[in-house]
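for the writeup, i need someone to sanity check this before i put it in the appendix. the sequnce is what the collaborator sent (i think, or maybe the updated version? ugh). structure was predicted straight from it, no edits. if anything looks off just tell me and ill rerun, i have time this weekend
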Amino acid sequence: MKNKFKNKSLKEILYKVIFESDTLAGKVFDIVLIILILLSIVLVMLESISFFNKYLNIFRIFEWIFTIIFTIEYIIRIFIVEKKRNYIFSFFGIVDFIASIPSYFTLIFNLPIFIFIRALRLLRIFRILKLWNYLKEGKIILTALKNSFYKISVFLITILTLIIIISGIIYFIEGPDNGYTSIPKSMYWTIVTLTTVGYGDISPKTPLGQFIASLVMIMGYAIIAVPTGIYTVEMSKVIKTGISGKVCSACLTEEHRSDAKFCYKCGNRLD
């Protein structure tokens, strides 16, 4: 490990440890971070149980310890990246920031919402898993999701249009007497039926309404297959193309092709 870090600057060493996991130090850092994140989440859950109210002061001390550690880590991440703005406003940059702020806000505000914000720290697990054993697999899934985003978005817009049309029809047929008090309420029923969830809190009473409900249910099975097919095709393309575990040190962009020498986003040379 000493040979790996020999003749490297502090910033390069920190980058290797924090953003990569091909060294023992990087793996140890990831494990410690996972443990801290899980402990902080367990703390949030225990605070919601009345039995542990007598330990709240102890919980507060540990919460501050976690917050200080996450804050220092966040500052170090900003320090070592070249394009700091790109990291700060990236998805994981925002998650890292959110992991640090709840305790500071509780000094000013005492709102239950900050318990939920603290629970968002669990999202950081994805960063760590992505940088270790599940590096390639995680990147394949994320890349396929990104590539299929626009196709699935068009599909969802089409479904939303269909939901509005069906809602208007069922509202006109059934009406307030049968529980369809408004078009938004009818939209709720349409979504529940189209997704084949079927809570049953409201249901059509007229023969025509029941016939339309049957068509919507059958339609639901067909609709579920469409985004699955789109995503499967993109997944197949990504697997054939191949992606590497290279992370751009300048803008932190990932999902580079296996043969890529430069970042496709900013042009920085990849290590």
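The chain has two domains: 2-133, 135-271. The domain at 135-271 is CATH 1.10.287.70 (Helix Hairpins).
thx in advance!!
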